[in-house]
Amino acid sequence: MNAKHLQTNLSLSADQLAQHGVVYQYITPDPQTYQTSLDHWKQQRNYIAQDQITLTPNTPNLETLLEKFSKEHLHTDDEVRYILSGSGIFDIRSIQDEWIRLTVHAGDFIIVPANMYHRFTLTDEKKIDAIRLFKENPSWVPIYRT
Ligand SMILES: [Fe+2]
């Protein structure tokens, strides 16, 4: 994971992210063991649902999907992602209303807390395989910033 302040280009540590309410942990992407770590988070923060999202250059309507994710929005549920492979870019609005850019790769686990504005896009490889955790099944919808 690489986190930086977009305007100043200064790096941020996991502790500094935590000051904004963003949780980061590295979990070794070993299929034998990562689920135990995810189960721990599920228990700790009451996530009841889990699914997997895969985006590749062959995903139908990839550009339409990315357009949806890349517009600044928030959710009333946490946005929880564990990256299995590929990469992605999360921009998160800090409490000072400035962008923090998180570039994530395999093994990165992040929680963007509920009600925090953010946007997402892929890197140039246009590939990501990630597990998502949710507190509620159907309520996870984007609310766009106006
Ligand atoms: Fe989102």
Our measurement of the CA-to-CA distance between the termini, rounded to an integer number of angstroms, reads 29 Å
β-strand percent reads: 35-45%
- Helix fraction by DSSP (H/I, runs of at least 4): 10-25%
CATH superfamily, by name, is: Jelly Rolls
CATH fold title: Jelly Rolls
Mean pLDDT: 94
Provide the succession of SSEs: EHEHEHEEEEEEEE
Instruction: Please tally the helical runs, counting DSSP H or I stretches of 4 or more residues.
Output: 3
What structural class do you assign from the helix and strand content? alpha+beta
- Radius of gyration over all CA atoms, rounded: 14 Å
Gist of the model:
The chain is α+β, with helices and mostly antiparallel strands and 146 residues long. Helices cover 18% and strands 38% of the residues.
Could you characterize what this model shows?
This protein is α+β, with helices and mostly antiparallel strands. The chain has one domain: Jelly Rolls (Sandwich). Helices cover 18% and strands 38% of the residues. It has helices spanning 14-19, 34-45, 62-69, and strands at 2-5, 23-26, 49-55, 73-74, 79-86, 88-93, 99-104, 108-112, 118-122, 128-134, 143-144. The strands form three sheets. The chain has a five-stranded antiparallel sheet. Strands 1-7-6-9 form a four-stranded antiparallel sheet. Strands 4-11 form a two-stranded antiparallel ribbon. The mean pLDDT is 94.
